[in-house]
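Regression test case RT-17, inverse folding.

Input:
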């Protein structure tokens, strides 16, 4: 306790210390505490206050924490599979009441945390429950160990599909890399249909669960082949609601590419990255054909996201799902607000070398604002290459493919904007 000892001059300071001890310091300790002790500091006053019955000093009082913490046994550590394939360990507890609620499960976040806290199956543990947050294990109580407790190891294979699990560098999370892992189904479907993704109204969590349980839907592609008759056979579906649901599912086919990219649950690709990628590449096919380097050219996209995207589209499971969605007639396109009237509308452009006045970023944003698309490598589908000083292999490749090569001045002329020294 010594590092957290404080001298308080007023009662308010005592209250502040007690509050901090309970709400801040406690969670940082690697041992369990249930309160603190407040003592009168002056030896003279200690003498004067005295001791009751020879053992209870009047100059010291225990401050016990509010009872939102309980002790119980950690019966088991199990894992589930999240929608991106992340393997999440959780604690199975001997049921215990905390603040009027029976707690049976607690989150454990990841393997590192379990190792750091030295949690062993069979341990007595302190469990904390605060508000609506999933209960957490604060720490084990090593004094209560009998020797029968067992250290826990993350499984090597996915508990649902058996695929060997992977761990990315610099990341605490462990993943099942199988994109079509059944463990990812339910959460994946819930995410796919959610408001921020494909926004299919009328598909509640319970309904998705029902569709999965009935074997009608295994992946998002299956949603699009659901029929009126199939749904009517299920419990809880009436004629009218069924029509509305089928209509909502079919309508989602024309959602813009950015929503689809978010909906797919590609690792590390959230709503913002999905938007950047969709705006840059314009179509799903262009994104699927892109290399990690091409994707890194998109402003705001780093290596983690780029690798996640490439891994997803090069995975047979990912490709299978995309094929299914394509056959279902999904749009796969990002509407371009500026494209229709833009001077470079529909053009695919590559920039290489150092331009005389424009930075690479500035040139890219000007091309995009004019409706053009900037990619990282020259191919037959490149409309023209903008070459500056010290242009290298891209220039050679453009020459060999017969791709038009222009300089910055010509680019600016085509964008219809004169070069100025301020840009
Ligand atoms: Zn799996």
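Golden output:
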């Amino acid at each position: 306790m010594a590092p957290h000892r404080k001298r308080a001059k007023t009662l308010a300071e005592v209250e502040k210390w007690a509050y901090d001890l309970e709400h801040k310091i406690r969670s940082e300790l690697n041992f369990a505490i249930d309160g603190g002790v407040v003592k009168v500091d002056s030896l003279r006053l200690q003498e004067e206050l005295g001791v009751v019955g020879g053992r209870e000093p009047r100059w010291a009082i225990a401050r016990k924490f509010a009872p939102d913490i309980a002790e119980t046994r950690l019966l088991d550590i199990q894992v589930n599979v999240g929608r991106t394939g992340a393997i999440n360990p959780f604690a199975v507890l001997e049921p215990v009441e905390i603040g009027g609620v029976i707690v049976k499960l607690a989150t454990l976040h990841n393997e590192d945390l379990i190792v750091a806290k030295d949690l062993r199956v069979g341990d007595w543990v302190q469990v904390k429950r605060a508000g609506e947050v999933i209960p957490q294990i604060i720490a084990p109580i090593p004094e209560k160990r009998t020797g029968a407790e067992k250290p826990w190891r993350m499984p090597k294979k996915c508990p649902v599909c058996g695929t060997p699990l992977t761990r990315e560098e610099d990341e605490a999370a462990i993943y099942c890399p199988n994109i079509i892992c059944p463990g990812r189904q339910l959460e994946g479907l819930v995410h796919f249909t959610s408001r921020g993704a494909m926004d299919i109204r009328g598909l509640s969590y319970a309904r998705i669960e029902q569709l999965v349980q009935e074997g009608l839907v295994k992946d998002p592609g299956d949603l699009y082949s659901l029929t009126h008759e199939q749904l009517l056979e299920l419990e809880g579906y009436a004629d009218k609601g069924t029509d509305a649901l089928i209509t909502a599912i079919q309508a989602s086919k024309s959602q813009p590419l950015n929503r689809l990219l978010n909906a797919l649950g590609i690792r590390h690709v959230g709503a913002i990255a999905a938007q950047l990628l969709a705006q840059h590449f314009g179509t799903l096919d262009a994104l699927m054909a892109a290399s990690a380097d091409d994707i890194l050219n998109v402003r705001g996209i780093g290596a983690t996201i780029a690798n996640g995207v490439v891994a997803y589209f090069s995975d047979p499971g990912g490709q299978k799902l995309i094929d299914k969605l394509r056959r279902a007639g999904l749009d796969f396109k990002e509407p371009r607000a500026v494209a229709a009237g833009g001077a470079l509308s529909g053009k695919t452009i590559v920039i290489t070398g150092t331009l005389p006045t424009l930075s690479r970023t500035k040139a890219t944003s000007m091309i995009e604002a004019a409706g053009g698309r900037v990619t990282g490598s020259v191919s037959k589908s490149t409309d023209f290459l903008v070459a500056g000083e010290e242009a290298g292999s891209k220039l050679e490749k453009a020459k060999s493919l017969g791709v038009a090569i222009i300089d910055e001045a010509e680019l600016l002329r085509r964008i219809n904007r004169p070069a100025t020294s301020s840009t």
